[in-house]
Amino acid sequence: MLKPADWNNTKRYYDLKSFWRNRFGSRVYKLQIDAGFTCPNRDGTVSTGGCIYCDGRGSRLRQAGPLPSVSEQIRKGKEYYTTHRNAGKFIAYFQTFTNTYGPLDKLRALYEEALAEDDVVGLSVGTRPDCIPDDVIDLFQGYAKHSHVWLELGLQSIHNRTLQCINRGHSAETYINAVHRASGKNIHICTHIIVGLPGETQENMLETARVIATLPIQGIKIHLLLALKGTVMGDLYEQAKITLLSKEEYITTVCDMLEILPPEMVIQRLTADGYRDIFLAPQWAVNKMEVLNAIDRELERRNTFQGIRYVKNG
Ligand code: SF4
Questions:
Q1: In this structure, are strands 279-281 and 227-228 parallel, antiparallel, or unpaired?
Q2: I want to staple 306 with a disulfide (CB 3.0 to 4.6 A). Which of 195, 229, 248, 258 is the partner?
Q3: CA of 98 to the centre of ligand 1 (A)
């Protein structure tokens, strides 16, 4: 198998920047939006504790005071990227907490406020797999007729015992069901996973990638588990009750995953973001560029690339 020529890039995986360029012929930026949503895993509907790694504070914008409207957030983001990055097209990224958690009319109003802005070519909506009813999928399907739509589903691990351990509040089956309900509707599906969750072996993590590789999804975000102050995970770390991955373990696992995933799957993220003010560990993760470079070097050393071990329908 050869590296796919249609990536049109010099990377050994199909990165998001290349995908945007191939799809739109220009730079595209995701504008992060905090539309004021909450999360059923925090407000008591599913649970009150939230996922054990989640700091629960929401965006920096929310922490700073009353939230500006969606259109104000978009205009401000556009101004920045147009001036500093020469960007011309944008995706409105509903990022904070669970962005399908609300009545349909409210969701429609927020998404359409975003789509009405000039140069916004689509939406990316982050949510939980237990919070994506069919009427919301229908709404996205309608938008997908004229816009570029991504549904970002948090999974984290395909193993139910891990999902229970991290208090996700949904099962792997709920995720798989959500994927199948949303697929075949011109909606791009992106799955979020976390590498290094408590109790998982490297084989467990690769199993998550193997299952994802069999599903009709178009993108993935691979995060590293971080310990943040004020979270259960942070407490466990400070009490020396959990061990976080070394940089070498993370790089090896990510490269193994990339080899397993389909070559056409867009790799949207390969590092983790944590607020510096509450960051505890692992220290090596702070230098994100070095982590990305180390992944490039490891793929080069192996002389492999994304998809080289992908087994179709396997
Ligand atoms: S689903 Fe997301 S927002 Fe909700 S508790 Fe988990 S990580 Fe936090």
A1: antiparallel
A2: 258
A3: 7
What is the structure's pLDDT at 85? 77
Residues 6+ apart with CB under 8 A from 108: 139
- The pLDDT of residue 126 is 98
| Number of the ligand 1 atom closest to the C-alpha atom of 96 | 3
Residue 272 has which token pair?
């983790």
Spatial CA neighbour of 244 closest among 262, 224, 259: 224
Q: CA–CA separation, 26 vs 35, rounded Å?
A: 27
Sorted by sequence, the CB contacts under 8 Å of residue 296 that are 6+ apart come out as 11, 12
Query: CA 84 to CA 6: how far, in whole Å?
Result: 28
Q: Which domains does the chain have, with CATH numbers?
A: 5-302 (3.20.20.70)
Pocket of ligand 1 (CB under 6 A): 39, 41-42, 50-51, 54, 97-98, 128, 154
Sorted by sequence, the CB contacts under 8 Å of residue 102 that are 6+ apart come out as 37
Radius of gyration of the chain (CA): 19
Low-confidence residues of the chain: pLDDT under 50: none
271 vs 282: CA distance, rounded Å: 12
| Number of neighbours of residue 179 by Cβ within 10 angstroms | 20
Q: Which two tokens stand for residue 242?
A: 């959990």
Specify the amino acid at residue 306: Q
Contact 30, 85 (CB under 8 A): no
